[in-house]
Amino acid sequence: MLKNILPRGRSRSLNRTHKIAIAGVGTLGAAAVAFTAVPASGQTTTTSEAAPTAKVAYSTKQIQDVHAGVTGQLAGASQKVAAIEAKQEAAAKKATAEKKAAAKKAVSQREAKETVSRSAARTEVKKAAPKSYPNNLDGWIREARAIMKKHGIPGSYEGIHRNIMRESSGNPMAINDWDINAINGIPSKGLLQVIPPTFEAYHVAGTSKNIYDPVANIVAACNYAADKYGTMDNVDSAY
Protein backbone atom coordinates (compact mmCIF):
# COMPACT_ATOMS: atom_id res chain seq x y z
CA MET A 1 0.00 0.00 0.00
CA LEU A 2 2.91 2.40 0.57
CA LYS A 3 3.79 2.16 -3.13
CA ASN A 4 0.49 3.73 -4.09
CA ILE A 5 0.96 6.57 -1.68
CA LEU A 6 4.30 7.69 -3.07
CA PRO A 7 4.06 9.72 -6.41
CA ARG A 8 5.75 8.39 -9.42
CA GLY A 9 8.99 9.85 -10.56
CA ARG A 10 10.12 10.78 -7.05
CA SER A 11 12.91 9.28 -5.20
CA ARG A 12 11.92 6.25 -3.17
CA SER A 13 14.20 7.30 -0.38
CA LEU A 14 12.30 8.47 2.64
CA ASN A 15 13.30 11.47 4.55
CA ARG A 16 12.51 12.06 8.19
CA THR A 17 9.26 13.86 7.35
CA HIS A 18 8.06 10.99 5.24
CA LYS A 19 8.84 8.51 7.97
CA ILE A 20 6.79 10.45 10.50
CA ALA A 21 3.89 10.69 8.06
CA ILE A 22 4.00 6.97 7.37
CA ALA A 23 4.04 6.25 11.11
CA GLY A 24 0.98 8.42 11.52
CA VAL A 25 -0.82 6.64 8.76
CA GLY A 26 0.08 3.31 10.29
CA THR A 27 -1.29 4.45 13.58
CA LEU A 28 -4.53 5.59 11.99
CA GLY A 29 -4.83 2.30 10.19
CA ALA A 30 -4.44 0.37 13.35
CA ALA A 31 -7.08 2.51 14.96
CA ALA A 32 -9.40 1.89 12.04
CA VAL A 33 -8.88 -1.82 12.32
CA ALA A 34 -9.63 -1.66 15.99
CA PHE A 35 -12.78 0.34 15.33
CA THR A 36 -14.05 -2.13 12.77
CA ALA A 37 -13.68 -4.88 15.34
CA VAL A 38 -16.29 -3.26 17.58
CA PRO A 39 -19.65 -5.05 17.22
CA ALA A 40 -22.74 -3.26 16.10
CA SER A 41 -24.21 -3.51 19.56
CA GLY A 42 -21.66 -1.04 20.80
CA GLN A 43 -20.03 -3.44 23.22
CA THR A 44 -16.34 -3.96 23.07
CA THR A 45 -15.14 -7.49 22.57
CA THR A 46 -11.79 -8.41 24.04
CA THR A 47 -9.75 -11.48 23.42
CA SER A 48 -9.39 -12.31 27.11
CA GLU A 49 -12.18 -12.28 29.66
CA ALA A 50 -11.45 -11.25 33.27
CA ALA A 51 -13.09 -13.32 36.06
CA PRO A 52 -15.99 -11.48 37.62
CA THR A 53 -15.03 -9.86 40.91
CA ALA A 54 -17.00 -11.27 43.86
CA LYS A 55 -18.82 -8.68 45.84
CA VAL A 56 -17.87 -8.59 49.57
CA ALA A 57 -20.84 -8.19 51.86
CA TYR A 58 -20.16 -6.33 55.06
CA SER A 59 -22.51 -6.94 57.97
CA THR A 60 -22.54 -5.35 61.39
CA LYS A 61 -24.49 -8.34 62.72
CA GLN A 62 -21.77 -10.75 61.69
CA ILE A 63 -19.17 -8.68 63.48
CA GLN A 64 -21.36 -8.55 66.58
CA ASP A 65 -21.87 -12.31 66.47
CA VAL A 66 -18.15 -12.90 66.20
CA HIS A 67 -17.54 -10.52 69.06
CA ALA A 68 -20.22 -12.26 71.12
CA GLY A 69 -18.73 -15.67 70.31
CA VAL A 70 -15.26 -14.57 71.37
CA THR A 71 -16.64 -12.92 74.47
CA GLY A 72 -18.53 -16.09 75.34
CA GLN A 73 -15.41 -18.18 74.86
CA LEU A 74 -13.40 -15.83 77.06
CA ALA A 75 -16.15 -15.88 79.68
CA GLY A 76 -16.25 -19.66 79.60
CA ALA A 77 -12.48 -19.85 79.94
CA SER A 78 -12.61 -17.39 82.83
CA GLN A 79 -15.28 -19.47 84.53
CA LYS A 80 -13.19 -22.61 84.12
CA VAL A 81 -10.15 -20.86 85.56
CA ALA A 82 -12.26 -19.50 88.42
CA ALA A 83 -13.67 -22.99 89.06
CA ILE A 84 -10.19 -24.50 89.12
CA GLU A 85 -8.96 -21.78 91.46
CA ALA A 86 -12.01 -22.28 93.69
CA LYS A 87 -11.34 -26.03 93.84
CA GLN A 88 -7.69 -25.43 94.64
CA GLU A 89 -8.63 -22.93 97.35
CA ALA A 90 -11.22 -25.33 98.79
CA ALA A 91 -8.67 -28.15 98.75
CA ALA A 92 -6.13 -25.92 100.50
CA LYS A 93 -8.69 -24.90 103.14
CA LYS A 94 -9.68 -28.53 103.62
CA ALA A 95 -6.06 -29.57 104.00
CA THR A 96 -5.48 -26.78 106.51
CA ALA A 97 -8.61 -27.74 108.44
CA GLU A 98 -7.57 -31.39 108.47
CA LYS A 99 -4.11 -30.45 109.73
CA LYS A 100 -5.64 -28.34 112.49
CA ALA A 101 -8.07 -31.13 113.41
CA ALA A 102 -5.25 -33.68 113.46
CA ALA A 103 -3.13 -31.39 115.62
CA LYS A 104 -6.05 -30.78 117.98
CA LYS A 105 -6.74 -34.51 118.16
CA ALA A 106 -3.10 -35.20 118.90
CA VAL A 107 -3.15 -32.61 121.68
CA SER A 108 -6.35 -34.12 123.10
CA GLN A 109 -4.90 -37.62 122.97
CA ARG A 110 -1.70 -36.44 124.62
CA GLU A 111 -3.66 -34.62 127.33
CA ALA A 112 -5.84 -37.72 127.84
CA LYS A 113 -2.74 -39.87 128.22
CA GLU A 114 -1.24 -37.38 130.64
CA THR A 115 -4.50 -37.36 132.61
CA VAL A 116 -4.53 -41.16 132.76
CA SER A 117 -0.89 -41.13 133.81
CA ARG A 118 -1.59 -38.60 136.56
CA SER A 119 -4.62 -40.56 137.67
CA ALA A 120 -2.58 -43.75 137.76
CA ALA A 121 0.12 -41.95 139.69
CA ARG A 122 -2.44 -40.69 142.20
CA THR A 123 -3.84 -44.18 142.53
CA GLU A 124 -0.37 -45.53 143.20
CA VAL A 125 0.15 -42.82 145.79
CA LYS A 126 -3.15 -43.73 147.43
CA LYS A 127 -2.17 -47.40 147.47
CA ALA A 128 1.23 -46.55 148.87
CA ALA A 129 -0.21 -44.18 151.45
CA PRO A 130 -3.47 -45.47 152.94
CA LYS A 131 -6.00 -42.91 154.03
CA SER A 132 -5.37 -41.74 157.53
CA TYR A 133 -8.00 -40.97 160.13
CA PRO A 134 -7.73 -38.82 163.23
CA ASN A 135 -7.00 -40.67 166.45
CA ASN A 136 -10.31 -39.86 168.10
CA LEU A 137 -13.81 -41.28 168.33
CA ASP A 138 -14.89 -39.74 165.01
CA GLY A 139 -11.83 -41.11 163.22
CA TRP A 140 -12.22 -44.57 164.80
CA ILE A 141 -15.86 -44.86 163.70
CA ARG A 142 -15.15 -43.66 160.14
CA GLU A 143 -12.18 -46.01 159.73
CA ALA A 144 -14.22 -48.92 161.16
CA ARG A 145 -17.07 -48.19 158.72
CA ALA A 146 -14.62 -48.15 155.75
CA ILE A 147 -13.44 -51.65 156.75
CA MET A 148 -17.01 -52.81 157.34
CA LYS A 149 -17.98 -51.62 153.86
CA LYS A 150 -15.28 -53.79 152.29
CA HIS A 151 -16.61 -56.85 154.16
CA GLY A 152 -20.32 -56.10 153.69
CA ILE A 153 -20.99 -55.44 157.38
CA PRO A 154 -23.90 -53.02 157.89
CA GLY A 155 -23.97 -50.21 160.45
CA SER A 156 -24.54 -46.46 160.29
CA TYR A 157 -22.36 -43.83 161.88
CA GLU A 158 -25.27 -42.79 164.12
CA GLY A 159 -26.05 -46.35 165.26
CA ILE A 160 -22.41 -47.08 166.13
CA HIS A 161 -21.88 -43.76 167.90
CA ARG A 162 -25.08 -44.14 169.94
CA ASN A 163 -24.14 -47.61 171.22
CA ILE A 164 -20.54 -46.59 172.00
CA MET A 165 -21.71 -43.68 174.13
CA ARG A 166 -24.07 -45.96 176.04
CA GLU A 167 -21.54 -48.77 176.55
CA SER A 168 -18.27 -46.91 177.23
CA SER A 169 -18.81 -43.16 176.86
CA GLY A 170 -16.15 -43.27 174.11
CA ASN A 171 -13.35 -44.75 176.28
CA PRO A 172 -11.49 -47.48 174.29
CA MET A 173 -9.95 -48.81 177.57
CA ALA A 174 -13.28 -49.22 179.36
CA ILE A 175 -13.90 -52.55 181.16
CA ASN A 176 -16.96 -53.87 183.00
CA ASP A 177 -15.98 -55.55 186.20
CA TRP A 178 -19.34 -55.90 187.88
CA ASP A 179 -21.85 -57.58 185.47
CA ILE A 180 -22.47 -61.31 185.02
CA ASN A 181 -19.69 -61.56 182.46
CA ALA A 182 -17.24 -60.11 184.94
CA ILE A 183 -18.49 -62.54 187.59
CA ASN A 184 -17.88 -65.37 185.09
CA GLY A 185 -14.33 -64.10 184.49
CA ILE A 186 -14.91 -62.78 180.99
CA PRO A 187 -15.58 -59.05 181.50
CA SER A 188 -16.74 -56.87 178.61
CA LYS A 189 -14.01 -54.62 177.19
CA GLY A 190 -13.46 -51.69 174.81
CA LEU A 191 -15.66 -49.13 173.14
CA LEU A 192 -18.59 -51.49 172.55
CA GLN A 193 -17.95 -53.71 175.62
CA VAL A 194 -17.30 -56.97 173.80
CA ILE A 195 -16.33 -60.08 175.81
CA PRO A 196 -13.14 -61.86 174.62
CA PRO A 197 -14.85 -64.99 173.20
CA THR A 198 -17.20 -62.83 171.07
CA PHE A 199 -14.29 -60.66 169.87
CA GLU A 200 -12.31 -63.68 168.80
CA ALA A 201 -15.31 -65.31 167.07
CA TYR A 202 -16.26 -62.17 165.08
CA HIS A 203 -12.84 -60.64 164.60
CA VAL A 204 -12.36 -59.29 161.01
CA ALA A 205 -9.12 -60.08 159.23
CA GLY A 206 -6.90 -57.08 158.66
CA THR A 207 -7.74 -55.47 162.00
CA SER A 208 -5.79 -55.65 165.22
CA LYS A 209 -6.27 -58.69 167.45
CA ASN A 210 -6.08 -56.45 170.50
CA ILE A 211 -9.58 -56.20 172.00
CA TYR A 212 -8.80 -52.68 173.24
CA ASP A 213 -7.95 -51.44 169.72
CA PRO A 214 -10.87 -49.06 169.01
CA VAL A 215 -11.23 -49.88 165.31
CA ALA A 216 -10.91 -53.66 165.78
CA ASN A 217 -13.39 -53.51 168.68
CA ILE A 218 -15.99 -51.60 166.66
CA VAL A 219 -15.70 -53.85 163.60
CA ALA A 220 -15.95 -57.09 165.62
CA ALA A 221 -18.92 -55.77 167.65
CA CYS A 222 -20.77 -54.62 164.48
CA ASN A 223 -20.06 -57.99 162.83
CA TYR A 224 -21.61 -59.74 165.87
CA ALA A 225 -24.62 -57.34 165.91
CA ALA A 226 -25.23 -57.91 162.20
CA ASP A 227 -25.30 -61.68 162.81
CA LYS A 228 -27.64 -61.48 165.85
CA TYR A 229 -29.76 -58.35 165.18
CA GLY A 230 -29.32 -57.51 161.49
CA THR A 231 -27.29 -54.35 162.20
CA MET A 232 -25.85 -52.37 165.11
CA ASP A 233 -28.58 -49.81 164.35
CA ASN A 234 -31.12 -52.24 165.84
CA VAL A 235 -29.30 -52.48 169.20
CA ASP A 236 -30.61 -50.15 171.90
CA SER A 237 -29.43 -51.89 175.04
CA ALA A 238 -26.92 -54.41 176.31
CA TYR A 239 -26.42 -57.14 173.75
Automatic annotation (TrEMBL):
Keyword check for Hydrolase: no
Keyword Membrane annotated: yes
Residues of the Transglycosylase SLT domain: 164-234
UniProt keyword terms in alphabetical order: Membrane, Transmembrane, Transmembrane helix
Region (Disordered): 106-132
Segments traversing the membrane: 20-38
InterPro entries, alphabetized: Lysozyme-like_dom_sf, Transglycosylase_SLT_dom_1
Residue ranges, compositional bias (Basic and acidic residues): 108-127
Signal peptide as annotated in the record: none
Protein's UniProt name: Transglycosylase SLT domain-containing protein
Organism: Streptomyces violaceorubidus
